[in-house]
Amino acid sequence: MRSHRPSWPVQAPRVARARKILTTVVTASILGAAGGAALAQGTSLSLPGLVVETSKPKATPAKRRAAQPSAPRPVAAAEPPQPSPTGAGAPITFDGRNSLTVPTTAEIQAELTRVPGAVAVVPDTAYKQSTPAATIKDVLDYVPGVFVQPKWGEDSRLSIRGSGLSRNFHLRGVQIFEDGIPRNTADGYGDLQEIDPSAYRYVEVYKGANALRYGANSLGGALNFVTPTGRDASRISASADIGSFGFHRLQSSIAGANGPFDLFLTASWQEQDGFREHSWGESTRGSSNVGIRLSENVETRFYFGVSDIMQRIPGSVTRTSALTDPKAAAAINVTNDWQRNIDAWRVANKTTIKLAPGTAVEFGAFYNDRHLMHPIFQWLDYQYEDYGGFARIVDDRIVTGGYRNRLIAGAQLHNGRIGNRQYANGPGASKGTTPLSSSLDRSENLALYAENSFYFLPAVALVTGTQFLYATRDRENRGGSVSGSTEFNLWSPKVGLLWDIDRTWQAFINVSRSAEVPSFGESSSVAVPAISFTDIKAQRATTYEIGTRGRRPDFTWDLALYRMEISNELQCLYSSFGTCQVVNADRTVHQGIEVGFGVVVMKGLVAPGPSPDRLWLNVAYTLNDFRFDGDSNFGNNILPGAPRHFMRAELLYKHPSGIFFGPNVEWVPQAYYVDSANTLETEAYAIWGLKLGFDNGGPFSAYIEGRNLSNAAYIASASIIDVALPTSPLFEPGTGRAVFAGVKYRW
User: Fold this and answer.
1) Per the structure, how many domains does the chain have?
2) How confident is the model over 643-662, as pLDDT tens digits?
3) 52: CATH
């Protein structure tokens, strides 16, 4: 039987493959399973009850007392919302099961109701028990404003409010955090293949400039993937999934707590042949965190993670090929065996100290190591090292005069270096051995930020904030490159209002500035004159946003309208050999409407009573209007790369016994352009699926899901270019009819 495993060139990785580290982690998981169960049941030192109050217990006039609405939860696909026990301003109680460092799902949902802009929390219950949880699309499907375009394997194009549309590879425009710790490289690059959706308790989504909470500085905002702790995870869990096109996945975790110590460890293995030719992939990933409660008011937590990813790349094809022969790979990708292989590991620490009721400080440090072996048009051998530290203080109190005030302030240092080596890639002995170019790229980023919420009325807060970003980019030529350096100093203020209309309903409005520093991937060798990366400016945006969100027993909603006026957006204005080259556009506009809601269509159909069965409609709709604004070459053309309308909807029946089933649909009713000249489009599509499963909150759950059951040929993702031809290879076909099934057991 032919092995799928990619061959490696003569210059093998200079660091130990992450697989060796992961083998140790998995072995420890197996050997420690019994110990983990014993740890969770330990009867040694127990932690005393602990209460952190979000305001001082001071009597204040009723007319000045801050409103404390219950926290609206995001719409969950497989679960109608239930009453939240924690209000937005209510005390957070630590009873020995919770963590000072990591908020529970209910706590973070309450926390995000204090943001005067579009944010969301996606709990793991929304996708883990009812989907394969194999890609980031499974996680973010029902968050309006977030557009995930699957490509191959676990890779996707990710855009929030039109961010990073010109990036045809990897990720730019959205900052990725794990447990509040940066996962992007220091120059802004990111890779979604390293994200294992099965490893997280919940995901925080911050759209646009609303990501100030973590000092993020990007057009699209930020995603924070938060892992469980040994205090809130199942002692032992295991799951298995299988599906079409050779999909297999195994995942397990252990967790436990004893006295001041807790541990969570998870590992997964995933393999698939892929729908398209030349799309085999295998991923082995693991992560863990160890918490130590040093006292009632101090906790420190250590994080570890490894990834070993091998993936063949089928490549982009013409529009005709994508719609008539969707399984076919690009010929050059097969001939030269295009791949993307990643070995990565990371270590980090975060410590939280409660200084007083309502006041806490958080600080930590991190180190990420990533080795990319990437044979494409050339053989790319990149070594990434990123390191940094962060500190943040939160102070929530009643100030003089009886007014509530909440301050968040912090700093984030994120530095890194990239050792770039590029070799010839082609058939024969020259493959991966003939050097072409090399450079050493260094990035430095220091972000200082502060945000203050002052409740000048009992239910209305004035929110003001600012961020200062200092960044440098320096390239040292080591052969075939061009040296250079650049520096940025950027201020980004914001102001907004947050109105708690009642305990279940909020409205917000804000005006915010944001800045995004270019990565080393931006420049153009075909412009006249050529544009070096040192000539690329930071893109700047002013965002106007208004919206409302709320949560009633049978209805939840999340509505936002926004307009971004952008200068120097990083856009594809030139191309060479069919490859987009990104430079600064003059002025562009991103505006849109984001609508998410869930509603009980019917309840008590066959099981009336205090816990009736429900028929739950879940909808996420996004209207995108992204345009050039008087561009010298493209006028007011539509920006390529995103559909004008995008909708996901699901009608799910859930019985009190835990049985659920229902159909879902993904609809793009209008084709979108793939070039700035607006000459070539994708094609409108609608695909539908069904799911059936069981999850009653107990130890066992199972599901079976069918996707694209009509077997429609459609375009799932597209690269962009300045001016396209009908034969331009820019399109990634969507997966045909597929069925997945999985089981999960928790002890």
Assistant:
1) 1
2) 999 999 999 999 999 999 99
3) 2.40.170.20
